Amino acid sequence: MQPETEWMRSSSSSRVRIAGIVGIGTGYNFTERWLTGEVPKLHREDNEYVYQRPSQYSETGYYEVPVSMLLNSREFLLPETGRIEMGCPVTFVHGTMDTDSKYETLVSLAERIDGKVEVVTVEGGDHRLSSEEELCVIERVVKKMVNDVSRINQTN
User: Fold this and answer.
1) pLDDT tens digits, residue range 95-121?
2) What confidence tier does 25 reach under pLDDT thresholds 50, 70, 90?
């Protein structure tokens, strides 16, 4: 799962001030797409049902996804159109060969976010971004965000 996408929308309006967001292999509203496009119709409102979502990354060949979680995520969905105010800088790290969360979808999302947004493209990277080189890119991005946010907080 990608929990950062489930709270992105609500984070900027919560009492705790979020200083910056780094999204890695970010997908958004995927819970709704799974619920309406993959979970069998008979079980889409069944809080007890656990969907076995196929995954090439799991040893079992699937992840267990409770429909209750998919239904509960609805209040955190990002709008599909219009501008999105995050209230803090956002940096996405995304691979061009990500078949789980399409690169083009992420770019489309980034274009709709107001404020400071950066997309760091990892050529040939897949969803996991787990090679040593890709992990170095992620480390560099996180360190840059921490430094940028620290600098902003020191001037305020």
Assistant:
1) 999 999 999 999 999 999 999 999 999
2) very high
- DSSP assignment of 15-75 equals SSPP--EEEES---SHHHHHHHHTS-GGGTT-TT-EEEEE-TTSTTSEEEEEHHHHHHGGG
Query: Where do the domains of the chain lie?
Result: 1-28+79-156, 30-77
pLDDT of residue 156: 64
The architecture (CATH level 2) of 1-28+79-156 comes to 3-Layer(aba) Sandwich (3.40)
Q: Which of 124, 127, 85 has its CA nearest to residue 106?
A: 127
Check residue 145 and give left, alpha or beta (phi > 0: left; psi -120 to 50: alpha). alpha
